[in-house]
Amino acid sequence: VHKEGLLYEGKAKKVYTTGDPKRLWVEYKDDATAFNGEKKGTIRGKGRLNNLISAALFTYLTRQGVANHFERLLSDHEQLVRQVSILPVEVVVRNMAAGSMAKRLGLEEGRKLSRPVVEFYYKKDELGDPLINEDHIDVLGLARPEQVGQMKSVALKVNRLLSRYFAERDLILVDFKLEFGLTAEGQLLLADEISPDTCRLWDSQTQEKLDKDRFRRDLGGVLEAYQEILNRVGGEQNV
Ligand code: C5P
User: How far apart are CA 49 and CA 30, in angstroms?
Assistant: First the structure.
């Protein structure tokens, strides 16, 4: 495959066409943003780490039967994916209260939830990605009810698989965000990325945060934390 024109540039990635309408070329950038783009920064080497981590996690999920867009690595900061149209819904799964849920509901961060909580957010920058429910998704026409049901059950399956996968690597999966897309044939695929930018991951022994909260909260050591996650998911061997 070869890289063609720039199709889309987001906060953390650039997406190019490839000449094959079924495949896209994704380049992970070193840019970091938080709080709906209010906080910006560059973390040299982050794109490479997220590309490799995301590739390792999608490869694991493929082996476990979770249909997703990942095809193969192209370089240390690029990957080839199936072309999908991304549904404008972010699906968040939480095992512990943290971040916006802790704040919204007045819960202590790190409080274990009695069961996983699934939330939906409307992917719309101008609105700051508001929390929505299945009725809003239906009324706004963001996805069909059966697709919402599918997204929820895949998200819970991914939670079971990744919670165990990370636990085996001395990491607690606190929460994470998924995005889904539709192929030209209408198949729903897990898409976007799964990385320390989109997951909260804490060290099981020390509770140390090894994710984007280090950037959001100015804790320092962002790259070192992401490198530690890459080491624990199998290191650089995939390139
Ligand atoms: O901020 P909040 O607590 O709602 O985030 C929940 C989870 O979803 C966190 O792991 C966060 O990194 C992820 N997230 C994301 N992209 C967003 C919002 C949240 O990856 N736009």
Answer: 9
First to last CA, the chain: 17
| Low pLDDT (below 50) residues in the chain | none
User: Tens of pLDDT along 24-47?
Assistant: 999 999 999 999 999 999 999 999
Q: Which CATH number fits domain 6-82: 3.30.830.10, 3.40.50.720, 1.10.3210.10, 3.30.200.20?
A: 3.30.200.20
Q: What topology does CATH give the domain 85-220?
A: D-amino Acid Aminotransferase; Chain A, domain 1 (3.30.470)
- 99: Cβ below 6 Å to ligand 1? yes
pLDDT for position 103: 98
Residue (of 87, 54, 52, 33) closest to 199 by Cα position: 54
Which atom of ligand 1 is found nearest the CA of 98?
3
**Can you name the residues that pair with 32 across neighbouring β-strands?**
41
| ipTM greater than cut 0.90 | yes
Ligand 1 centroid to residue 5 C-alpha, Å: 30
Pocket probe for ligand 1: among 111, 166, 198, 209, the residue whose CB has the most ligand atoms within 8 Å is: 198
Share of the chain above pLDDT 70, in %: 99
